[in-house]
Specification:
By secondary structure, the protein is an alpha+beta fold. 35% of the residues lie in helices and 17% in strands. The strands form four sheets. Strands 1, 2, 3, 4, 5, 6, 7, 8, 9 and 10 form a ten-stranded antiparallel sheet that branches. The chain has a three-stranded antiparallel sheet with strand order 13-14-17, with helices on one face.
Length: 496
C-alpha cells in the first residue's frame, strides 16, 4: 500500500507499442529528468504530441498507470501497464477505443484509494486539484488509523481491531469494495471518511442480488461475504483474519503462511489428511480468474469455494427469459436502511453507464424520493435527465432549473439544460450555460463542440474555431473536432 502512488520518476515503466484497435502509437520514456507519454496517429500530423507524466498510480503488483495535468486539470494516462500479462494496453474500459482517450479525468474515487493527503478538487470542477493534488505518496497510516496529529503528541489513535465489527470492516471496505453502484450521501464525499466513523454516513454501496460469479477487480469484500467461512464465523472473521495490513509474506513463505491461516480454523488434524500432497490451499479454494471489468487482470476468488468452479456450458433455450436483476444495499445487514433516493440514483447510474435497462419501478422510486428530498440536487438532476431521455423537455427543464438553483456548479445539469434551451431557439442562454460548464470541465468535448457549432451557425467562425481548438487541446484525436476544424478553415466554412 505504501507504494500505491508517487512521483512518476520513482516508477517509470518504459513503453513503446501500437494499440491495435485504434492504431495509435504510444511511448513512455524518461528524458531530461522527466517522464513523458508521447502519442501519435500515423499519417495524421495533427495528432502527434506528448504529455509530461507527473505521478504514477498502482504499486505494480497488478499494474500501473500515470497522471498528467493540462491547465491544472488532472487526467489519467490513456494506457496502463498490466503486470499479470506483462503488457501495455489501453486503460480499463477503453480497449476497443478507436481514438486516443486523453481526456480521462482523475476522479476522487480513484485517487482516494491510492494516495494520502488528497486535496479535494476546486469547487465546481471534477478534476482541477490544488497543487499538489496530494501531500503524501502511497497509502499511509492515517488511511486505517485516522488523523495522527494527536497521536504524534502522545494521544490515542484508532485501532481497527478495537472497533465494533461494522466499523472495523469498513476500514477495509472503503477501498476494497466497489459494488455495482456507489451513491454518496447528500453533502458528503467518500474521501472525507475517517476510520472509526460509519462509512454508510458517506456512501451507500449497491450490488446485484444472486450474482455470484461476477468477480470484479475490486470485489474482495463482496466476495468474502458469500463464503461459507464468513457465513459460519460471522463477525469473528474479517480481512485481517488472513491479511496483515502491515506486512506481506515473501514469495517463498506465501503458501505456508496462508495455509496456517486456514488451519487456524480447520485444525492441523484436518490438514494432515486433506490433500497432504497439495499444501497450497488457495490454489484450489481461492483460484485466480480474469476480472470481469479490468482487462489482463486476475482476481483471487475470495468466495473461498469448497470445490473449484467448473466452467458452465452454453445451453440453448429458445424460450428462456432471465429474471431482471435485483439491486440491493451492501452489506446485507443494511438493506432495511435502504431508501428510495439511493436506490433510484443507483439504478440511474447503472442505466447511464449502459450496464442494464431501466427497471419498471425507477420512475416510482424517483417520485417517492423527490417527495422525501425535494431539494436534493443529485436527485433533481437525475430526474431531469430521465425526463429528457423520454422527450419530456418541459419537465426536464423544470427539474434542471431546481437542481441548479440548489447547486449552480452541476456540470451535467447545466450542459443538459443548455441542450433544451438550444432546441427552443434560446441560443444565447444555451451558450451561457454551456460556456460556464465548459470552463469548469474542458475535457467534456461534447460541450465545447456544441458551443462551437452554435457560434458557427451564428456566423462567428473565429469564435467557433477557438472553441474547437480548445476541445482539441484536451482531446486531440476526436474525429468530429478534427473534421469541424478543417471545415472552419476552408474557403466556405461549414458547421457540421
Amino acid at each position: 500500500m505504501a507504494k500505491a502512488s508517487g512521483p512518476a520518476l520513482d516508477g517509470p515503466i518504459p513503453a513503446d507499442f501500437v494499440h491495435r484497435k485504434s492504431g495509435a502509437h504510444y511511448r513512455i520514456y524518461t528524458e531530461d529528468g522527466k517522464v513523458w507519454l508521447s502519442f501519435e496517429r500515423p499519417n495524421d500530423p495533427a495528432v502527434r504530441s506528448r504529455r509530461q507524466l507527473l505521478y504514477y498510480i498502482g504499486s505494480g503488483r497488478r499494474g500501473r498507470s500515470y497522471l498528467f495535468a493540462m491547465d491544472g486539470f488532472l487526467f489519467e494516462s490513456p494506457v496502463n501497464w498490466y503486470t499479470g500479462r506483462n503488457v501495455w494496453d489501453a486503460a480499463p474500459g477503453f480497449g476497443d477505443a478507436r481514438e486516443i482517450p486523453l481526456n480521462l479525468p482523475a476522479f476522487t474515487g480513484c485517487l482516494h484509494c491510492h494516495v494520502s493527503g488528497m486535496q479535494p478538487p476546486i469547487q465546481g470542477t471534477q478534476n482541477r486539484y490544488p497543487k499538489p493534488p496530494f501531500t503524501q505518496d502511497g497509502v499511509g497510516c492515517e488511511r486505517c488509523h485516522g488523523p495522527g496529529a494527536a497521536h504524534a503528541k502522545g494521544g490515542a489513535i484508532v485501532n481497527p481491531a478495537k472497533l465494533d465489527p461494522a466499523r472495523r470492516d469498513e476500514v477495509c471496505m472503503q477501498c476494497h469494495l466497489e459494488g455495482k453502484a456507489a451513491v454518496e450521501q447528500p453533502g458528503r464525499h467518500l474521501y472525507e471518511y475517517q476510520p472509526g466513523e460509519m462509512l454508510s454516513d458517506y456512501v451507500h454501496y449497491f450490488v446485484f442480488a444472486d450474482q455470484k460469479r461476477n468477480l470484479g477487480a475490486i470485489s474482495q469484500v463482496e466476495a468474502l461475504s458469500q463464503s461459507v467461512c464468513k457465513k459460519k464465523t460471522g463477525d469473528a472473521m474479517s480481512c485481517t483474519t488472513c491479511h496483515d495490513p502491515h506486512s506481506e509474506p515473501s514469495a517463498a513463505e506465501r503458501v505456508s503462511y496462508y495455509r496456517q491461516k486456514c488451519l487456524a480454523c480447520h485444525g492441523d488434524q484436518f490438514g494432515s489428511r486433506h490433500h497432504r500432497e497439495q499444501p497450497d490451499c488457495a490454489s484450489c479454494h481461492m483460484p485466480a480468474s480474469l476480472s470481469t471489468d479490468v482487462a489482463h487482470t486476475d482476481v483471487t476468488d475470495h468466495r473461498i469455494l469448497r470445490r473449484p468452479p467448473v466452467a458452465l456450458q452454453p445451453v440453448q433455450l429458445s424460450n428462456f427469459r432471465p429474471d431482471p436483476p435485483r439491486l440491493v444495499r451492501f452489506p446485507d445487514s443494511l438493506k432495511s436502511d435502504q431508501d428510495a433516493r439511493d436506490l433510484a440514483l443507483a439504478w440511474d447510474s447503472l442505466v447511464n453507464r449502459g450496464i442494464t435497462a431501466a427497471p419498471p419501478q425507477l420512475e416510482s422510486l424517483f417520485r417517492a424520493a423527490i417527495k422525501k428530498s425535494p431539494d436534493d440536487p443529485a436527485l433533481l438532476s437525475a430526474i431531469g435527465y430521465s425526463a429528457q431521455k423520454r422527450g419530456q423537455a418541459d419537465l426536464a427543464r423544470e427539474f434542471y432549473g431546481k437542481a441548479l438553483a440548489v447547486d449552480p456548479t452541476l456540470i451535467e445539469a447545466s450542459a443538459n439544460l443548455a441542450a433544451i434551451e438550444a432546441g427552443r431557439g434560446h441560443l444565447r442562454e444555451a451558450v451561457r450555460l454551456w460556456d460556464d460548464a465548459f470552463q469548469r470541465a474542458p475535457d467534456q468535448s461534447s460541450i465545447g463542440m456544441n458551443i462551437a457549432r452554435a457560434y458557427c451557425e451564428a456566423g462567428q467562425v473565429d469564435r467557433a474555431r477557438d472553441y474547437v481548438l480548445r476541445v482539441l487541446e484536451f482531446n486531440p484525436d476526436l474525429t468530429e473536432a478534427k473534421k469541424l476544424f478543417q471545415s472552419l478553415n476552408g474557403p466556405s466554412p461549414q458547421c457540421h
